[in-house]
Design goal:
single chain; about 400 residues; alpha/beta; nine-stranded mixed beta sheet; 9 strands; about 45% helix; globular
Amino acid sequence: MPVATAKPAAAPAIRPFTIETPEADLEDLRARIEATRWPEKETVADQSQGPQLATMQKLARYWATDYDWRKVEAKLKALPNFITEIDGLDIHFIHVRSKHDNALPVIVTHGWPGSIIEQLKIVDPLVNPTAHGGKASDAFHVVIPSMPGYGYSGKPTATGWDPVRIARAWIVLMKRLGYTRFVAQGGDWGAVVVDMMGVQAPPELIGIHTNMPGAVPADIDKAAQSGAPAPSGLSADERLAYERLALVYAKGVGYAYQMGFRPQTLYGIADSPIGLAAYLLDHDARSLELISRAFAGQPTGLTRDDVLDNTTLFWLTNTAISSARLYWERVEAGGFAFFSVKGVSIPVAVSVFPDELYPAPRSWTERAYPKLIHYNKLDKGGHFAAWEQPQAFVEEVRTGFRSLR
């Protein structure tokens, strides 16, 4: 006679997640850094060949001797961390609810070479505005997910996790958390994801904020990618944006092409901490200058610990390759249209930081987003705005969404 057995209880839809790093992993990291085989010095006096040897050796010395992962691990553990399965993949996220009545739920999405580390400085100011010079009426409930293949989220084992699918997953996540009215924010890949959320336009999503808008007209984008001279008839702001965009396509996104076409080739950055650090540092020229100053003892916006917190998270989670595949997914989905108009029809707030890959002109932005509710050009800050200029970033998010409350 078969024995009756109780069915196991179904796993809860949302499970608490605890971050625990074995000391052996940190000892292995330090040993690998100290065993680095260095190349010779670059043959130029600037960073046009990539992160300079002197910068990387300073980074290595600090990383192997004085850097303390446990400090940022404690910050992460102090926040409520969770895991939930969406579309067959475990998604990790931070979820901090505000004590203030009528707080507006916001989901904030990082990019590459970023992670949830980028957003740590903005959590409390958004959740507890009255403790940071704001008003209770500006409070947010904050959700910060790790993108698929990044950080503590699961690593896709099959193709298909492109920005469109991630956008759908984020909508599922917010609804699963019980939010029937929410907004979304993103930069870098996060900007593409929130644009896709805006295209999908579920009734619960009442607006998005982006600090890397998809606002470049198709003909302008095509010309910039081809390296053609700036089209005639551009305003001064449009011409500057075009020139910066053309430079990005010509010399600034080599990593995107590499990861877009052959991500699995990058075994070296999964095996060498210094290889990984150099690859993550070399995102764009202005950010590299900022980071290099930090390791030269002149921090302006990002500290050495900021940079290594993010790099160490990539290392400990072994996500160099899994995160790279997002670029491959984008190629498979039709190309490198990072900055192009996507067709967002819901309300949009845009913040333009001067050292972003391209400074979006108001003219392009108004055409790209017919329901533009906020546009502001800031006087300081770059690609990693939430990380580098958290106070200004928080104020932009508060102001940008205020009319939707």
